Amino acid sequence: MSGGTGSLTVAITDDHPVVIEGIQTWLSEEPRISVVYTGETADVPSGVADVLILDLNLHGRIVIDTVAALAAAGQRVIVFSQFTEQRVVLESLEVGACEFVAKNEGRVHLVNTVLAAAGDRPYVTPTAAGVLVGDRGANRPQLSSQERTALLWWFQSMSKASVARRMGVSVHTVDVYIRRARVKYAQVGREAPTKADMLARAIEDGLVKPDDITGYESAAAGG
Protein backbone atom coordinates (compact mmCIF):
# COMPACT_ATOMS: atom_id res chain seq x y z
CA MET A 1 0.00 0.00 0.00
CA SER A 2 1.06 3.58 -0.55
CA GLY A 3 -0.56 6.76 0.67
CA GLY A 4 -0.81 10.15 -1.01
CA THR A 5 -2.79 13.35 -1.21
CA GLY A 6 -3.95 13.23 -4.84
CA SER A 7 -7.64 13.09 -5.63
CA LEU A 8 -7.19 10.42 -8.32
CA THR A 9 -6.53 6.95 -6.92
CA VAL A 10 -4.46 4.29 -8.64
CA ALA A 11 -3.81 0.61 -7.97
CA ILE A 12 -0.79 -1.27 -9.35
CA THR A 13 -0.48 -5.00 -9.92
CA ASP A 14 2.82 -6.46 -11.15
CA ASP A 15 4.72 -9.58 -10.13
CA HIS A 16 8.03 -7.70 -9.95
CA PRO A 17 8.36 -5.45 -6.86
CA VAL A 18 10.98 -3.34 -8.60
CA VAL A 19 8.45 -2.50 -11.33
CA ILE A 20 5.85 -1.53 -8.73
CA GLU A 21 8.40 0.71 -7.02
CA GLY A 22 9.31 2.30 -10.35
CA ILE A 23 5.67 3.03 -11.22
CA GLN A 24 5.08 4.49 -7.76
CA THR A 25 8.08 6.78 -8.24
CA TRP A 26 6.78 7.92 -11.63
CA LEU A 27 3.30 8.58 -10.30
CA SER A 28 4.53 10.33 -7.14
CA GLU A 29 5.72 13.21 -9.33
CA GLU A 30 2.10 13.93 -10.32
CA PRO A 31 0.30 15.63 -7.39
CA ARG A 32 -3.15 14.68 -8.64
CA ILE A 33 -2.43 10.96 -8.23
CA SER A 34 -2.33 8.76 -5.12
CA VAL A 35 -1.36 5.09 -5.20
CA VAL A 36 -3.72 3.31 -2.79
CA TYR A 37 -3.07 -0.36 -3.55
CA THR A 38 -0.25 -2.56 -4.84
CA GLY A 39 -0.22 -6.30 -5.41
CA GLU A 40 1.62 -9.11 -7.17
CA THR A 41 -1.25 -11.44 -8.11
CA ALA A 42 -4.31 -11.37 -10.36
CA ASP A 43 -6.62 -11.38 -7.32
CA VAL A 44 -7.30 -7.66 -7.59
CA PRO A 45 -10.29 -6.28 -5.66
CA SER A 46 -12.72 -4.71 -8.12
CA GLY A 47 -13.16 -0.98 -7.64
CA VAL A 48 -10.12 -0.65 -5.38
CA ALA A 49 -9.10 2.55 -7.18
CA ASP A 50 -10.18 4.89 -9.94
CA VAL A 51 -7.61 3.31 -12.28
CA LEU A 52 -5.80 -0.03 -12.15
CA ILE A 53 -2.41 -0.49 -13.84
CA LEU A 54 -2.21 -4.22 -14.51
CA ASP A 55 0.75 -6.23 -15.75
CA LEU A 56 -0.59 -8.55 -18.45
CA ASN A 57 1.86 -11.34 -17.60
CA LEU A 58 1.59 -12.35 -13.96
CA HIS A 59 3.72 -15.27 -12.77
CA GLY A 60 3.98 -16.66 -16.29
CA ARG A 61 0.27 -16.39 -17.15
CA ILE A 62 -1.31 -13.91 -19.58
CA VAL A 63 -4.27 -12.57 -17.60
CA ILE A 64 -6.62 -11.43 -20.36
CA ASP A 65 -9.44 -13.08 -18.42
CA THR A 66 -8.68 -10.89 -15.41
CA VAL A 67 -8.72 -7.77 -17.59
CA ALA A 68 -12.11 -8.83 -18.96
CA ALA A 69 -13.59 -9.57 -15.52
CA LEU A 70 -12.39 -6.31 -13.99
CA ALA A 71 -13.54 -4.27 -16.97
CA ALA A 72 -16.94 -5.99 -16.89
CA ALA A 73 -17.25 -4.97 -13.24
CA GLY A 74 -16.67 -1.34 -14.20
CA GLN A 75 -12.99 -1.03 -13.28
CA ARG A 76 -10.86 1.20 -15.50
CA VAL A 77 -7.89 -1.01 -16.44
CA ILE A 78 -4.65 0.08 -18.09
CA VAL A 79 -2.73 -2.91 -19.40
CA PHE A 80 1.02 -2.47 -18.80
CA SER A 81 3.13 -5.03 -20.62
CA GLN A 82 6.39 -5.87 -22.35
CA PHE A 83 4.40 -7.93 -24.88
CA THR A 84 3.40 -5.61 -27.74
CA GLU A 85 2.33 -7.99 -30.52
CA GLN A 86 -0.72 -6.77 -32.46
CA ARG A 87 -2.85 -9.70 -31.27
CA VAL A 88 -2.05 -9.02 -27.61
CA VAL A 89 -2.75 -5.29 -27.83
CA LEU A 90 -6.00 -5.71 -29.77
CA GLU A 91 -7.26 -8.49 -27.49
CA SER A 92 -6.54 -6.37 -24.40
CA LEU A 93 -8.56 -3.50 -25.83
CA GLU A 94 -11.30 -5.81 -27.09
CA VAL A 95 -11.98 -7.28 -23.64
CA GLY A 96 -12.31 -3.83 -22.10
CA ALA A 97 -8.93 -2.30 -21.20
CA CYS A 98 -9.04 1.50 -21.34
CA GLU A 99 -5.60 1.60 -22.89
CA PHE A 100 -2.43 -0.40 -23.51
CA VAL A 101 0.94 0.97 -22.38
CA ALA A 102 4.18 -0.78 -23.27
CA LYS A 103 6.69 -1.01 -20.43
CA ASN A 104 9.31 0.77 -22.54
CA GLU A 105 7.12 3.82 -23.20
CA GLY A 106 8.20 5.69 -20.10
CA ARG A 107 6.76 7.90 -17.39
CA VAL A 108 5.09 10.60 -19.49
CA HIS A 109 2.95 8.17 -21.49
CA LEU A 110 1.94 6.20 -18.39
CA VAL A 111 0.99 9.29 -16.37
CA ASN A 112 -0.90 10.81 -19.29
CA THR A 113 -2.75 7.53 -19.81
CA VAL A 114 -3.73 7.36 -16.13
CA LEU A 115 -5.05 10.93 -16.15
CA ALA A 116 -6.97 10.35 -19.39
CA ALA A 117 -8.44 7.02 -18.26
CA ALA A 118 -9.64 8.52 -14.97
CA GLY A 119 -11.45 11.23 -16.93
CA ASP A 120 -12.83 8.74 -19.49
CA ARG A 121 -10.86 10.49 -22.22
CA PRO A 122 -8.83 8.88 -25.00
CA TYR A 123 -5.05 8.77 -24.90
CA VAL A 124 -3.42 6.60 -27.52
CA THR A 125 0.15 5.55 -26.77
CA PRO A 126 2.65 5.05 -29.63
CA THR A 127 2.38 1.27 -29.26
CA ALA A 128 -1.42 1.27 -29.43
CA ALA A 129 -1.39 3.78 -32.29
CA GLY A 130 0.96 1.60 -34.30
CA VAL A 131 -1.22 -1.45 -33.77
CA LEU A 132 -4.43 0.40 -34.64
CA VAL A 133 -2.89 1.85 -37.82
CA GLY A 134 -1.69 -1.61 -38.81
CA ASP A 135 -5.07 -3.19 -38.14
CA ARG A 136 -7.21 -3.38 -41.27
CA GLY A 137 -10.24 -2.65 -39.11
CA ALA A 138 -8.58 0.31 -37.38
CA ASN A 139 -11.38 2.74 -38.25
CA ARG A 140 -13.73 0.56 -36.22
CA PRO A 141 -13.23 0.55 -32.46
CA GLN A 142 -12.69 -2.74 -30.66
CA LEU A 143 -15.88 -2.83 -28.56
CA SER A 144 -16.32 -5.55 -25.96
CA SER A 145 -19.44 -7.69 -25.94
CA GLN A 146 -20.66 -5.86 -22.81
CA GLU A 147 -20.20 -2.49 -24.50
CA ARG A 148 -22.08 -3.63 -27.61
CA THR A 149 -24.92 -5.07 -25.53
CA ALA A 150 -25.24 -1.93 -23.39
CA LEU A 151 -25.30 0.27 -26.49
CA LEU A 152 -27.87 -1.86 -28.29
CA TRP A 153 -30.32 -1.88 -25.39
CA TRP A 154 -29.70 1.80 -24.68
CA PHE A 155 -30.47 2.58 -28.33
CA GLN A 156 -33.76 0.68 -27.95
CA SER A 157 -35.11 3.67 -26.01
CA MET A 158 -34.29 2.02 -22.69
CA SER A 159 -33.21 4.04 -19.71
CA LYS A 160 -29.77 3.23 -18.33
CA ALA A 161 -31.52 1.82 -15.25
CA SER A 162 -33.48 -0.59 -17.46
CA VAL A 163 -30.32 -1.60 -19.29
CA ALA A 164 -28.61 -2.21 -15.95
CA ARG A 165 -31.44 -4.45 -14.72
CA ARG A 166 -31.47 -6.43 -17.97
CA MET A 167 -27.69 -6.90 -17.91
CA GLY A 168 -27.60 -7.66 -14.19
CA VAL A 169 -25.15 -4.85 -13.44
CA SER A 170 -25.27 -1.43 -11.79
CA VAL A 171 -26.24 1.79 -13.54
CA HIS A 172 -22.68 2.97 -12.89
CA THR A 173 -21.34 -0.01 -14.85
CA VAL A 174 -23.67 0.75 -17.77
CA ASP A 175 -22.35 4.32 -17.71
CA VAL A 176 -18.81 2.93 -17.80
CA TYR A 177 -19.61 0.75 -20.83
CA ILE A 178 -21.08 3.69 -22.73
CA ARG A 179 -18.28 6.10 -21.78
CA ARG A 180 -15.69 3.49 -22.73
CA ALA A 181 -17.32 3.02 -26.15
CA ARG A 182 -17.21 6.81 -26.66
CA VAL A 183 -13.52 6.85 -25.77
CA LYS A 184 -12.80 4.03 -28.20
CA TYR A 185 -14.57 5.86 -31.02
CA ALA A 186 -12.57 9.00 -30.21
CA GLN A 187 -9.35 6.96 -30.27
CA VAL A 188 -9.95 6.11 -33.94
CA GLY A 189 -10.91 9.69 -34.84
CA ARG A 190 -14.69 9.19 -34.88
CA GLU A 191 -15.96 11.17 -31.90
CA ALA A 192 -19.47 10.36 -30.69
CA PRO A 193 -20.36 12.83 -27.93
CA THR A 194 -24.14 12.27 -28.03
CA LYS A 195 -26.49 9.30 -28.13
CA ALA A 196 -27.45 10.19 -31.70
CA ASP A 197 -23.78 10.21 -32.70
CA MET A 198 -23.23 6.83 -31.04
CA LEU A 199 -26.22 5.38 -32.85
CA ALA A 200 -24.98 6.72 -36.19
CA ARG A 201 -21.54 5.20 -35.61
CA ALA A 202 -23.02 1.85 -34.63
CA ILE A 203 -25.17 1.76 -37.77
CA GLU A 204 -22.20 2.77 -39.94
CA ASP A 205 -20.19 -0.12 -38.49
CA GLY A 206 -23.00 -2.65 -38.85
CA LEU A 207 -23.22 -3.21 -35.11
CA VAL A 208 -26.95 -2.53 -35.32
CA LYS A 209 -29.50 -2.03 -38.07
CA PRO A 210 -32.20 0.66 -37.97
CA ASP A 211 -34.82 -2.10 -37.85
CA ASP A 212 -33.17 -3.46 -34.67
CA ILE A 213 -33.95 -0.26 -32.81
CA THR A 214 -37.32 0.08 -31.17
CA GLY A 215 -38.32 3.73 -31.36
CA TYR A 216 -35.41 4.45 -33.70
CA GLU A 217 -36.39 8.07 -34.41
CA SER A 218 -36.81 9.00 -30.75
CA ALA A 219 -33.55 7.29 -29.84
CA ALA A 220 -31.67 9.19 -32.52
CA ALA A 221 -33.20 12.46 -31.41
CA GLY A 222 -32.41 11.91 -27.74
CA GLY A 223 -28.86 13.28 -27.90
From TrEMBL:
Signal peptide range: none
Pfam families in the cross-refs: Response_reg, Sigma70_r4_2
Highest taxon listed in the record's lineage: Bacteria
Residue span(s) of domain Response regulatory: 9-118
Residue numbers bearing the 4-aspartylphosphate modification: 55
Keywords: DNA-binding, Phosphoprotein, Sigma factor, Transcription, Transcription regulation
Alphabetized InterPro entries for the sequence: CheY-like_superfamily, NreC/VraR/RcsB-like_REC, RNA_pol_sigma70_r4_t2, Sig_transdc_resp-reg_C-effctor, Sig_transdc_resp-reg_receiver, WalR-like, WH-like_DNA-bd_sf
PROSITE patterns: RESPONSE_REGULATORY
CDD domains per the UniProt record, alphabetical: REC_NarL-like (cd17535)
Family: Belongs to the sigma-70 factor family. ECF subfamily.
Protein name: Response regulator
Organism: Streptomyces cinnabarinus
